[in-house]
Amino acid sequence: MSDASPLYSSQIKCPLCETQVEYTKVRTKSVKITRQDTDFCPWYEGENPLLYEVVVCPECGYGAHVTTFETLNKYKKEKIREKITKRWKKRSFHGQRTLEQALEVFKIALLNLYEMDAPSSEIAKICMRIGWIYRYKANEDMEKKFLEHALKYYQLAYQNEDLSRGKLDEYTCMFIIGDLYKRLGQHVESSQWFSRLIMCYSDPAQKDKIPQRLIETARELFHETKELAAAEKSKGA
């Protein structure tokens, strides 16, 4: 690819079969974000770097988000060899990606996560991104399906994982759960999660841990979902 291209090639070693995997990245200076939805779905002008976040080994079928691709212990390797590699048809995903190709690699990564019993937060992250790609395609039914999966696993992550160390903190997780409930039309549940986050912010011991922009948006969405829930209740009365 030429220097003028927003895309360039990089390499990473597959931790499963040790193949040098060539994959595609988007140059940082070429990234132009135009807006972001309340669930953090980004919209870009030009090439969308989100489509290239997953790396798939063409030889063995191991696939993962680029940030976790090299993290694979012995147990996970055995699982992937047994469940993925034995059925894998060798193919490469290097080069520019369409939305359909991005969906394919993200679903391969999701299958890998399921087979290796990955943490719920990692599964939720990939389900969320698949939902976003369907949003780019304006496929509301499939977007809803994967946002429902994301909601399920974000809730499991909130209940069962220590969110004090990773990139996903408990307050952002609460916000995402509230936003997903809203997008899925469950306004009572949505307002409850936003209310819980707002209560955390009122606690001096927790206040400094919650970004100002996050709590401002949570307050706006809380009032919106409260009104929507009240309107639905009055219709059903």
Could you walk me through the main structural features you see in this protein, from its secondary elements to its overall organization?
It is a single chain. The chain is of the alpha+beta class and 237 residues long. It has two domains: 161 residues, Serine Threonine Protein Phosphatase 5, Tetratricopeptide repeat (Alpha Horseshoe); 64 residues, no CATH class. Helices cover 52% and strands 12% of the residues. The chain has a two-stranded antiparallel sheet with strand order 1-2. It has a two-stranded antiparallel ribbon with strand order 3-4. The chain has a two-stranded antiparallel ribbon with strand order 5-6. Strand 3 and strand 4 form a beta hairpin. The termini are far apart.
Brief overview:
This protein has 237 residues and is α+β, with helices and mostly antiparallel strands.
Helix-strand pattern: EEEEEEHHHHHHHH
Uncertain residue ranges: none
Question: How many domain modules?
Answer: 2
Supply the number of helical segments. Answer: 8
CATH topology of the largest domain: Serine Threonine Protein Phosphatase 5, Tetratricopeptide repeat
Query: Which CATH class of the largest domain applies here?
Result: Mainly Alpha
| Distance, first to last CA | 62 Å
| Share in β-strands | 5-15%
Helix residue percentage: 40-55%
Mean pLDDT: 94
What value does the Rg take, in angstroms?
20 Å
Class of secondary structure makeup: alpha+beta
Describe the main β-sheet briefly: 2 strands, antiparallel
- With strands numbered from the N-terminus, the spatial order across the biggest sheet is 1-2
Q: Please tell me the CATH architecture of the largest domain by its name.
A: Alpha Horseshoe
Shape: globular
Oligomer: single chain
Count of DSSP E strands?
A: 6
